[in-house]
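[Primary structure, fold]
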Amino acid sequence: MNFEELADRYRRHDSARVVHIDAAGRRRELTQAELHALATERAGQLAVAGVRPGHVVGIRAANSVDWLAWDLAAVATGAVLKAFPDEMPVDEPGAFLARHGLALLITDAEGLPAHPAVVAPDGTPGRDVAVVDAPRGEPGDLHSLVFSSGTSGRLKGLNVSRKGTEYVIGRFVEAFAITSADRHLIFLPLANYQQRLSVYCCLWTGADLVLAPYQRVFAAVKTERPTFLIGPPVFYDTVLQLHRKGGTGTLAAMLGGDIRFLITGMAPIRRETLDAFWAEEVPLLEAYGMTESGMIAWNTLDEHRLGSVGRLIDPDAVTLLPDGELLVHRPAPLSSGYFDTGGAQDDTYRPDGTIVTGDYGELDADGYLTLLGRKKDVIALGSGRKVHPAEIESFFTGIAEIAEMVVVPTPQSSRLGAIVTPAPPATPGDEAAEAVIRKRIEEVNQALEPHQRVMSLVFSAQPLRSDPRFMTANMKLSRPLAAAHFAQAVGSTEGAGA
C-alpha cells in the first residue's frame, strides 16, 4: 500500500461499499468511488479556503462519511490532519486554532462562537478563511498528528509516518489475506489511529467498510455481516455475555454469520473468552502493537497460539533485554516521535531510532510472544522484590469461580492484593461463593513463591475491565485507579475487608 496510488485505486472501486450508521440508527451508503468524488470535492474546498501543503487541518467530530472525506482530502492537498479525541475540549475557537497551529478546524462541537476557520463536518468553508498566519511545515514523511492515551490516561501527541502507515497496512493485507470479498466494521473513534489504518486498508483492497457507533455495534454486526473486526477485550467479553444470555443460535450467527477472524490487542484478554470463541469455531486472534512503533506481533489464521500475542512480525527488529523488556528498531516505525509532551520523547525514542516499548515479554521455543506486563505497572514490594501484576493474574486464570482478577499493591506495599469479580451464578455479597474463592486462591498460593502470593482480597460485582470508571479513553484498564479503589475498600488497616 502507498498513499501515492491510494486515490487512484479506490476511485475505481464501483462496487465496494462505505456505510455509516449514526447513533439514531440512520444509514448512509455510497460506493468507494463516490467517496473518492466527495473527497475530491472536499480537497477543492480546502484549496479555496486557503489551505496549502504543509498546513495543519484539525478535526474533532464523531465518525461519519464526511470524517473520511476530510481525511482523504487532506492527503490529496498535502495538508496534515490533526485528529482530536472527544475528550479534548474545544473552547474559544480562535484560541484553539492558535494553540494547535491549525489553518482550519472541522468539528461538530456545539455551542461554539462563530469563527470563519471553523466548519461543520458536512459544511463548506468559505473562500480564504484559513488562518492567515497558520504555520506551514515541510510534511515530508509526516502523515498525521494523533493523540493516544495508552494505559496512562494522559494524552500523548504522536507524529504518524506515511512510510510507517504504508508498511503496517501492507503487512496486514498479506498476513490476513484481505481482499475485495471482505467487509470490515469499525466502531471505535476514527481519532484512534488504528481505525484509520483499517480505513486505508479497505480502500486499498476494495473491501467494504462500515462505520457504526458503539451503542449500535451489536445490531450492526448482525445486519452488516462483517468478515473481520478489530476491538478491545471488553467488546468480546460483552459479546460472549450477550450470547450466553440469549440462549439460542450460534456465536457465529450472532456476529452476522460471515466472520473470518476477529482481532483483539488493546489490552489483555481473559483466556476464558478466547477459549469460548474458539470452541464456537470463531477465530479470535490476539495481536500486539503500539502507535509509536506499529504492529509488533500477531496471531494469524495459519499461525496462532492461544494465550500469546503471536509471532514477531519482524524478528530481527525486536530485542528482548535481560529483564524481558522489548525494544523495537525497524526502518519504518508507525510514528517518528511525540509532540507537545514536555520531554517524554526522551524516554521512548532513542537517538538511534530504537523505540522502548515499556512492555515485558518472553518468547517460547516456537517464537510466540507472551506479554508479562507494563514496566510502569510493575509492583515494588517492601521486600525489594518486583512483580508484574499481569503475570501474577495468569497464575489464577484456572479458577472457575473467578470471572476477573486484578492484582494490585496493598496500601503498605508489603504484599499483593487483588480485586476479584466472582463468576456467575454468584451474586454480590454471596459469602459462600467468596469463601470458595478464598480457598481456591490459597490453594494456588501454596505453589507460588512468597512474593507472588495474593494475600488480600476485595470483591467487586462488576469486572473492572468493563467498568468505565476504571478504563482509559482507549478502553484499557487503568491500574492506578484500580489500586486506589482497592486502598479505599480496605481502609487504612491492612487486610480489612479482605
In short: Residues 492-498 have pLDDT under 50 and may be disordered. Residues 21 and 212 are 5 Å apart (CA to CA).
